Amino acid sequence: MVLKLFRLDERGTNPIGRNCLMQPRKDASIRGNLVSNLGFRADATHTVFDERVGRPRPVAGLPLEALPVSPSRSTPLNRAKRRPGQKDNTDPAAMPEPTAPDMTAGRLIRAVQHRLTIDPDRFLKTCSSVVHVGANTGQERALYDRYRLAVTWIEPIPTVYQELVKNIRSYPRQVAVQALLTDRPGETLNLNVANNAGESSSIFDFALHRDIWPEVHYIDCLQMKTETLDGLLERGIVRLPIDAVVLDTQGSELMVLQGSAEVLRQTKYIKVEAADFEAYKGGATVETIEDFLKMRCFRLRKKTRFAEHPMGGKYYDLLFDRGA
């Protein structure tokens, strides 16, 4: 059983921010303590909601056994209730030892607080600019703006590109480019457009992707001329410095990297979404991407699982940085 934790909006109905996942004991008091002390709502579930595909997806949690077991006696879990303004005159020595459920809840609360204070995108703190390939509608625009980054979004689908342009109008440091990137310029390829607002669109056919998201399918096919990231750089459409490259191109990530030799020599970080199985027919995998970047002096710094195939394969967000 996995406990799904997420912040609520002002009305207390909709989840906002990032999910934090733990594996708690089956104790109802844990959920009550989380709600009263952290402002979280907790559900027993094996999934979190994936905004990109508009449906829940399976995830892994963090075992509580790996956490310390020493909650303070003065934590909200054990402190007696008092009226507003009343001083806490409780003698700590007279307070009862915390019970097992309280200890479990205390460990869980500290774990949640720890997770919330660690920014998974903290590598962006050392960046001044990002190129995001596979932009869709620019869902990360507010995140990039928070880090005051100059951003070049690259999105191939015309209708989605127009929506992207509208979404970034209030972000003066962000620009959008309409282009289909691969490893070779000037080729004509079919781009399959997916029914989930274009988020799963790809130049490849679906393979095992269907097993995870069976409701996602193609509804259109566009013929498009290809570009390379190096070509955009040479023509001045993309400009240096490029501190980080983010790729989410649904199977063609390796091809985009192969067409980015000059950019790779300049950048510090590469963030890629990939599976360790064939999600798209002939598409890139974790292994092929890692092997390619290893030969170019990039090391895998972080590997975060976010989806799982019924037969055991997994989807990851991969973060690479340039090795010493």
What does this structure look like?
About 25% of the residues lie in helices and about 30% in strands. The chain has about 325 residues and is α/β, with parallel strands linked by helices. The protein folds into two domains: about 1-80 and about 90-115, no CATH class; about 120-320, Rossmann fold, CATH 3.40.50.150. A hairpin with a 6-residue loop joins strand 1 and strand 2. The longest helix has 18 residues, at about 100-115. It is globular, with a radius of gyration of 23 Å. It starts with a strand and ends with a strand. Mean pLDDT is about 75; it is low at about 1-95.
Largest sheet: number of strands, sense, barrel closure: 7 strands, mixed
The number of domains is 2
Uncertain residue ranges: 1-95
**CATH homology superfamily name of the largest domain:** Vaccinia Virus protein VP39
Continuous helix count: 9
What is the helix/strand order?
A: EEHEEEEHEHEHEEEHEHEHHEHEE
Quick take:
This protein has 9 helices and 16 strands. The protein is an alpha/beta fold and 324 residues long.
What are its keywords?
single chain; 324 residues; alpha/beta; 2 domains; 4-stranded mixed β-sheet; 16 strands; disordered N terminus
How is the topology of this model organized?
Blueprint: E1 2-8, E2 15-23, H1 28-38, E3 40-45, E4 47-50, E5 55-58, E6 62-63, H2 100-117, E7 129-133, H3 141-146, E8 150-155, H4 158-167, E9 174-178, E10 180-181, E11 188-194, H5 209-212, E12 218-227, H6 229-234, E13 244-247, H7 253-258, H8 261-266, E14 269-275, H9 286-294, E15 298-308, E16 314-322
Parallel strand pairs: 2-6, 7-8, 7-13, 8-9, 10-12, 13-14
Antiparallel strand pairs: 1-2, 1-3, 4-5, 11-12, 14-16, 15-16
